[in-house]
Here is the input.
Amino acid sequence: MAEQSLVVRGLNVAYGESKVLFDIDFDVAPNQIVCCVGRNGAGKTTLLKSIAGFLKPSSGAATAGGVNLIGHRPYDVARMGVKYVPQDKKVFSDLTVRENLELGSYATKDYNWDRVMEYFPKLKILLDRKAGFLSGGERQMLMIGRATLGNPKVMLIDEPTEGLAPSIVTHLKYVFGELSKSAALVIVEQNLPLVCGIAHKVYAMRDGRIVAELPGGAALTPAACEPYL
Ligand SMILES: Nc1ncnc2c1ncn2[C@@H]1O[C@H](COP(=O)(O)OP(=O)(O)O)[C@@H](O)[C@H]1O
Ligand SMILES: [Mg+2]
Here is the structure.
């Protein structure tokens, strides 16, 4: 079998005394888009943060392309080609769009500007604008653009379309398709029509556990996902 882009096995994570993730197993093949759905508080963000190095699991394994990720700091996980796009869309308001983009790949200096400008022509116009002036949609483009700039192998994207206009959601859908040609994508997403339009596989989470794995294809419908929300 070809090597998986991301493999998580038996991952347990707690905030202090409070256990939040229980024995998570998760697989993402190269060029796959895997979506993660579940109610607020199910543990989706905690899962992405743990893979990205922001939280230290109490046990379990996570590897990208066969390389261990656990125990490394976020900066080092990013350098290994695993890029995390957090839910909060926090940009450096006083820096320009260009500076914000560059920061994401500062460690590797592996910049692919052409690709970012191709996917997000809007950002090209805004390159010298202070990021604090961007709209929510532009901010999300900046976040995803920043992760894209360094030629990621795996992208972990947390609720990218939350609060965005339908036209931007449609654009992001196209971008995710393009990104998956060169990377594996894990997308936490509540927009079920979007999920069903892009996912090769869906993991449903509830109370810190993966409770269902739904394959992509015609049977993957919003109605099939709804019981898990
Ligand atoms: N920093 C934190 N400290 C303590 N508990 C937290 C923290 N962040 C999240 N939690 C708890 O962990 C659980 C999972 O949260 P989270 O991963 O954010 O879920 P989701 O992203 O699915 O909404 C929730 O019960 C939440 O209250
Ligand atoms: Mg979350």
Observations:
- The mean pLDDT is 94.
- Residues 83 and 155 are 5 Å apart (CA to CA).
